[in-house]
Design a protein that fits this description.
By secondary structure, the protein is α+β, with helices and mostly antiparallel strands. Helices cover 44% and strands 10% of the residues. It contains 19 helices and 10 strands. It is globular and about 75 Å long. It comes from Sorghum bicolor (Sorghum).
């Protein structure tokens, strides 16, 4: 991120008001004297207004610079080193563009004012401040193992951190506006712009899909601007022109492709499984999970926790250090194989565990233990599980029409998928010499569950030989 700075001569030419005469910009102010420009490699120039800057300049928000957007994915895709910091600025920018378009065309009808516009942008700016180290890994992989049954979420922590930031840094914002940033009780469409729980179309996805595709060197032909410019509020619900149906499907299919090829890449998951094991080993010593419930402590957690493990006293965290060193040496857990859950078994599928694999071992010279096996249960969907997200989206024929309606897949194309969810089970051997044994047990498990091997192919002989 780069900042546009005026020349020294320009600075000298501007009068500098003294603290006694300076007037603090009001909420929703657009005074350019107090606006800062930053340059983003995805969206170009982003203008940060005075209130946004008050949040950006806090240590809690600056922490996002030390949270990689894609966690450990950069070990497989070297370019994936972007952080939650630039993503948050990007969502802030896109939220501003979306609400500006709505105000231009429906501002009077919807009663959109400067406060609405600013709160939507701030919701975009602050939506991810509650993420833990390595982003989703902390929430979905680490915490469930050390605190089973926990309902912790980064969304809830974001709300707690927002209150903490306002109090700690004395940010000038009224309570009513603060409540709107957290959740819009009236004008619900304002909240849907950033995080749309109704149909999954929001500027958060617009940003991370484009940003992640670019960072990983993948093509992305989804054009978010078509949706931000075409969106229209009808009955407190954001609707889209019917002609953009396939563009919306492309949004969800691109997201699914990212999950399949990047987020759940077999080696990415191997690294994540190893790091989770290291964090669990270090949890009691560093109190990682305890920090997850107090915003005053939580904001101090970021990706540098790896350094905390490595620099612990010599007699502490020996096993965790060994795992980190294995990751650095690229001695990863060995991927044995995977299978896709048959579509007729999806409804009643339960996550496979290491115990399931170990219990499927029949006869071998080596007796497997649960700690020898790692299992990754992957779900890939279009953002609403087995349900088609497009069925919950409302469309309109043209801007002269006041009727909104859904569109069924069969009215558009017979090439669209009949199923909207994949469940993939991957198994890993934590020791290279166990690849053959784990692979055999995994195949036995498939035979016991489905009466056949559902994997795409058997573990290559070269891999088995190389691992022995």
């Amino acid at each position: 991120m780069g900042e546009y700075c005026p020349s020294p001569q320009g600075l000298a030419a501007l009068p500098s008001p003294s603290p006694e005469t300076a007037v603090r910009p009001s909420y929703g102010s657009c005074d350019r004297r107090y606006v800062k420009q930053v340059f983003d490699n995805l969206h170009g120039s982003i203008s940060l207004d005075p209130l946004a800057l008050q949040f950006v300049d806090t240590e809690e928000f600056q922490r996002l610079r030390d949270l990689k957007q894609l966690g450990l994915t950069y070990l497989v895709y070297p370019g994936a080193v972007h952080t939650r910091f630039e993503h948050s600025l990007g969502v802030y920018s896109l939220a501003g563009k979306a609400i500006n378009n709505l105000k231009t065309y429906q501002g009077e009808e919807l009663g959109i004012d400067h406060v609405d516009m600013q709160t939507v942008k701030l919701a975009g700016l602050l939506h991810d401040i509650g993420h833990g180290p390595f982003s989703h890994l902390f929430e979905h992989e680490f915490l469930p193992r050390v605190d089973p049954g926990s309902s912790w979420s980064h969304e809830d922590m974001s709300v707690l951190l927002l209150d903490s930031i306002v109090d700690k840094h004395a940010i000038d914002i009224e309570n009513d506006y603060l409540k709107t940033i957290k959740s819009a009780n009236e004008k619900h469409f304002l909240y849907d712009i950033v995080a749309n729980g109704r149909n999954g179309i929001d500027v958060d996805k617009f940003d991370y899909i484009g940003r992640d595709c670019r960072a990983c060197g993948l093509g992305c032909n989804f054009q978010y601007w078509r949706l931000t410019e075409g969106m229209r509020v009808m009955g407190d619900e954001i609707c889209y022109p019917a002609k953009d149906y396939l563009s919306i499907h492309k949004l969800f299919s691109t997201r699914a492709d990212l999950h399949r090829t990047v987020y759940t890449h077999a080696k990415v998951k191997a690294v994540e499984l190893m790091l989770v094991d290291a964090l669990i080993e270090a949890n009691d010593y560093l109190g990682i999970s305890l920090h997850a419930h107090d915003p005053e402590d939580f904001w101090k957690l970021d990706d540098t926790i790896i350094k905390s493990i490595e620099t612990a006293p010599n007699n502490e965290l020996k096993k965790a250090k060994e795992i980190i060193q294995r990751i650095r040496r690229r001695e990863l857990y060995k991927f044995c194989n995977q299978y896709s859950v048959p579509k007729d078994k999806l409804e009643h599928f339960k996550n496979i565990t290491a115990q399931d694999v170990v219990c499927s071992q029949k006869s071998s010279e080596v007796l497997l233990k649960e700690e020898d096996v790692a299992v990754s249960n992957v779900k890939i969907d279009l953002t609403r599980g087995k349900d088609n997200p497009l069925e919950s989206i409302k469309f309109f024929k043209d801007f002269g029409c006041d009727e909104k309606f859904p569109i069924t897949d069969d009215r558009v194309s017979h090439l669209l998928p009949a199923y909207n969810e994949d469940r993939i089970v991957r198994v890993y051997a934590k020791k290279p010499e166990l690849v053959d044994v784990v692979s055999e047990a995994f195949e036995n498990l498939q035979m016991r569950m489905y009466g056949e091997k559902t994997q795409v192919h058997e573990t290559p002989k070269k891999k088995r030989i190389r691992s022995n």
